[in-house]
Design brief:
10-stranded mixed β-sheet, DHBP synthase, 203 residues, 10 strands, alpha/beta
């Protein structure tokens, strides 16, 4: 199923089929500030397993899965932050960053990588914020397009054809160009840049 929405002013009723699919443990495709992404509910192991398979990230992989949250309190719920890291996070979010933090006990085991880390995002995007709000819990996320040097535009109609067997709903916000987030590992006092993307490197 493909549902068309206004990415700037998404209507909750338009997103209802996507939210119902997430509640049932299905995976959806939806627009973010960095392109289209797979998404599933944090509380559903079946959805997590499907997302891992689509992304090719096993449970012992060095790369952690990433979840979307809506506020800084949720980031501190799922990731350990010292005072310095918290001040940095408060300064750069919401925005096009993925933070790799040491996972707290609130993170499901199936979410963590082998180093017990988790990725966290708080994008400045109306659809992302509304989906998390309507779902009532964090949304696991993974970009549809890998980090390629010369990516192609993402057409939701083509994504529906390609992933229709694994994805229940495609939230269509038109054709998007993938533009990845900046990935920062903040597991200590130092900032480790794992990938340079849209977000400026903080100092």
């Amino acid at each position: 199923m493909r549902i068309r929405i206004d990415p700037e002013r998404p209507a909750p009723r338009k997103l209802h089929p996507a939210v119902v699919a997430l509640q049932r443990g299905e995976v959806i495709i939806y627009p973010t500030d960095t392109g289209y992404a797979f998404g599933c509910a944090l509380s559903n192991p079946r959805g997590i397993a499907t997302l891992r398979r689509l992304k090719g990230i096993g449970e012992r992989h060095e790369k952690p899965l990433t979840m979307l949250v809506n506020d800084l309190a949720e980031i501190s719920t799922y990731g350990h932050m010292g005072n310095r890291v918290f001040r940095l996070v408060r300064r750069i979010l919401p925005g096009p960053y993925t933070l790799v933090l040491r996972a707290t006990s609130q993170v499901p085991r199936t979410m963590k990588n082998r180093a017990h880390e988790v990725g966290l995002r708080m994008p400045d995007h109306p659809v992302c914020r509304l989906l998390v709000e309507l779902l009532g819990e964090p949304l696991l996320t993974g970009s549809v397009t890998p980090g390629e040097a010369d990516p192609e535009p993402e057409d939701p109609e083509e994504l529906e054809k390609r992933y229709g067997k694994d994805v229940h709903v495609v939230v269509d916000a038109g054709i998007l160009w993938p533009n990845p987030s900046t990935v920062l590992r903040l597991t200590g006092d130092e900032i480790e840049v794992l990938r340079e993307g849209q977000g400026e490197i903080p100092t």
